[in-house]
Design brief:
single chain; alpha/beta; eight-stranded mixed beta sheet; two-stranded antiparallel ribbon
């Protein structure tokens, strides 16, 4: 889906409303139809010229819903996060999004990716709060002394937070007649004017009720205690589906006043876009291909489409496939295949110090290499599929094993030389 800016933006549309507001109207006799007729059909002015009204669109909206929440893929979610961020910069209007979705589908990764894109477009240095003051990253002093150079993603898991970790701790030992509340150190980036970023409240469905109330005040007032949030600091959140929808998620319903301050969406993983990300992040191509083979079974299992038996695995501690677990397995497989290639096909060559150390440290090499220098394939694939089952579950691992066996049995060289053979 492409999002392009038309010649008429939201400001000019809003201006039309303001112009109509300024006109004196007979409120006692006003109806929408009368106004349309008297003003020469206001409906002609309510949309930019050339934009078809809803009744003239070739097809109706294709928005799909999960539990009443509109579904978004990662690309659409990034669009809305950007839109609300720039609206905040332009007019100070806070719009926060809460992202619902199953564990491991990449909610945090989507937010981090769009954060990096915004930081790059603004020419600022991107950093996550957990990497501040670590080697090769900006220090707290550098950021606070020149906040206009930096863009910070503040990623906090609210599920294990106390009220004081958000609102601050009373400090009874200060001089004076009144007790002061001191905010936690991590919150100082949120209130540093000139610093841009996203406050990402992860696992908000796990947060205690008193923590949710503090977060409500922060989002509603754009203040942390008495300190206003930075003008360029937007707020978003994520949560697993409630237990009522997905057994074993650990999430509960969020307080109504808090949820009402959010735009709510349901993140649905996109296997093709995930595949692009996966190949760029070291996931083995066999894993990427299998994940896209039958996505509803091999990539993402929608809880609302599962049988009762399938849903049960979410509550009885069985592993199951998610984009996160599949990526972890695929990255591990890439590492194993790379080291095996070094050992098998580069014997007698000098390895780099790093590669030599990796070969020496990886127990797979000793486990599958025979005294003659060949690979014990049965042992190799037993270990590989055991790891797949640990991360993605028995069914996924067995399916991957069959897929790989069939894939490797195909004589690809012959088909590439003579594509006509595929139809034989």
């Amino acid at each position: 889906m492409k999002f392009t800016k038309s010649g008429t933006d939201i400001d000019s549309i809003y201006k039309l409303y303001l112009e109509n507001e300024e006109k004196e109207q007979d409120l006692d006799n006003w109806t929408p139809n009368v106004q349309d007729q008297e003003e020469g059909s206001a409906r002609d002015d309510i949309l930019p010229k050339g934009l078809a009204p809803a009744g003239m669109r070739p097809t109706p909206s294709t928005t799909e819903y999960t539990g009443g929440r509109p579904n978004v893929d990662p690309k659409m979610l990034q669009y809305f996060i950007k839109k609300y961020y720039y609206r905040l910069l332009r007019d100070g209007q806070q719009e926060s999004t809460i992202i619902y979705g199953e564990p491991g589908i990449g909610k945090t990764q989507v937010v981090e990716q769009v954060a990096k894109e915004i930081a790059n477009s603004e020419g600022r240095t991107f950093v996550t709060d957990e990497k501040i003051d670590t080697p090769g990253n900006p220090t707290t002093e550098e950021i606070l002394s020149d906040p206009s150079k930096y863009w910070v993603l503040i990623d906090k898991s609210t599920g294990d937070m106390s009220e004081e970790e958000v609102a601050g701790f009373p400090s009874p030992f200060d001089e004076g007649d009144y007790t002061k509340v001191k905010p936690m150190e991590w919150t100082k980036f949120m209130v540093t004017e000139g610093l841009h970023g996203i406050i990402f409240l992860d696992e908000i469905g796990h947060a205690k009720e008193e923590v949710q109330r503090v977060l409500f005040r922060m989002i509603n007032n754009r203040k942390l205690g008495k300190y206003p949030l930075s003008t360029g600091m937007s707020i978003h959140a994520a949560t697993n589906l409630p237990d009522s929808i997905s057994a074993g998620s650990g999430s509960s319903e969020i307080l109504a006043p808090l949820i009402n301050r959010f735009n709510t969406v349901q993140l649905i993983p996109d296997p093709l876009r995930w595949g692009q990300w996966a190949r760029a992040n070291g996931v083995h191509p066999l894993v990427v291909m299998y994940a896209n083979y039958d996505p509803e079974r091999t990539f993402y299992m929608d809880p609302e489409k599962m049988s009762p038996q399938e849903r049960a695995q979410f509550s009885d501690s069985k592993p199951f496939p998610t984009p996160r677990t599949i990526a972890k397995f695929g990255q591990s497989l890439t590492d194993d295949m790379y080291l095996l290639d070094l050992v098998i096909n580069h014997q007698g060559t000098d390895l780099s110090l790093e590669d030599a150390q990796r070969v020496a440290e990886n127990p797979l090499i000793k486990a599958v290499m025979t005294p003659s220098g060949s690979v014990d394939n049965n042992k190799l694939w037993t270990l590989i599929n055991h790891e797949a089952a640990q991360k993605c579950g028995q069914d996924w691992a067995q399916g991957f094993d069959s897929y790989v066996m069939n894939y490797l049995a195909i004589k690809w060289d012959e088909y590439l030389k003579n594509p006509q053979k595929i139809t034989e």
